[in-house]
Amino acid sequence: MKATAKKTLKTKKAFTLTELTLALAIIGVLFIMIATIIANMISIYQKGTTITAVNDVGRSIIADISDTITDTPPFSASVACSFILHLDQESGCRTNPERTTVVIKTANGIGNIGSSVPTGGAFCTGKYSYIWNSGYVLPGEDGNEAYNNGGSHKSTIKYRSNAGETTIKDFRLIKIQDKKRLACISQYNNSFDVDNNSTEYNLINNNAISEEPVELIASSDKRLALYSFDVVKTENTTTNRSLYSVSFILGTIRGGINITGNSNYCAVPNDADSDFDYCAINKFNFAIRTAGE
Predict the structure, then answer these.
(1) Is 283 in contact with 248 (CB distance < 8 Å)?
(2) How many C-beta atoms surround the C-beta of residue 247 within 10 A?
(3) Are 278 and 60 within 8 A, CB to CB?
(4) Domain locations in the chain?
């Protein structure tokens, strides 16, 4: 009698619904963690490149101004007063000759900033003048005002070259020949007080310049601009040498910068005006002495 063969059935093992749900949850958490790490790395990288750009441009500005000052012959600021045609303005100039060296214009009601902020100005060495528009008055990425009511304070430069009269618009920091210091003088009224409503630097009364003006803050994706530029000049009548103490603030146009605050000059990330990863600001200070006779 033959033995009956027994058939063994093999059962297939599979994941339960609970195990699948748990696995998908773990994978989802891992994906979120990886995405967060990548986003933070990109943010840190972008912030770092922005800060580097500010520092590089700042050092370049210092080098250019230093070369100009050391190469500028002795020239008393009061001499520039002789170029003024209006008698009342000339009298004010001779009383305050230091005003022919630097001018800073200010305005209220720009953006959400409650106090007065610089809108532009000029530093006049007697050989070249450095004329700037503040980041508060320049357009943003989309071409519109970066700060409400800022655009109306943006200035232009009018000068004469061998090709005729030319006007420069939408500049950040222009270096231009200006032996008569008209970039500074043109921003004062007849009483020789700063005319904060002036929107034109008129250098037409200079002779035709032999060098083309140079933009020292080139347009880039970082979109940098000055927010302040101040100069204190001390003259030594014995050696006929001058010491310039220069201080300027350079930063991005993006980021809702407010230089009037005590800290957090860039708008914090949860503010509506914030573009924190693209915001950087730095203050530069240096001193340079002119050559004597």
Answers:
(1) yes
(2) 14
(3) no
(4) 39-289
Question: 32-41, 69-78, 122-131, 269-278: which has the minimum mean pLDDT?
Answer: 269-278
Cα–Cα distance for residue pair 121/201, rounded to 1 Å = 9
Residue ranges of alpha helices (H) inside the chain are: 17-70, 87-95, 182-185
**Most distant CA atoms of the chain, gap in Å:** 140
Question: Are the C-beta atoms of residues 156 and 164 closer than 8 Å to each other?
Answer: no
Is the Cβ–Cβ distance between 182 and 83 less than 8 Å?
yes
Q: Which two tokens stand for residue 216?
A: 């020292």
Nearest to 256 by CA among 146, 116, 137, 114: 146
- Under a CB-based contact definition with an 8 Å cutoff, are residues 35 and 259 in contact? no
Residue-wise over 32-58: b if at least 16 C-beta within 10 A, else e? eeeeeeeeeeeeeeebeebbebbeebb
Alpha carbons 146 and 255: distance in angstroms, whole number: 9
| 22-47 confidence digits (pLDDT tens) | 888 999 999 999 988 888 888 788 78
**Which ranges of 71-135 would DSSP assign to H, the alpha helix?**
87-95
The whole-angstrom separation of Cα 193 and Cα 216 is 28
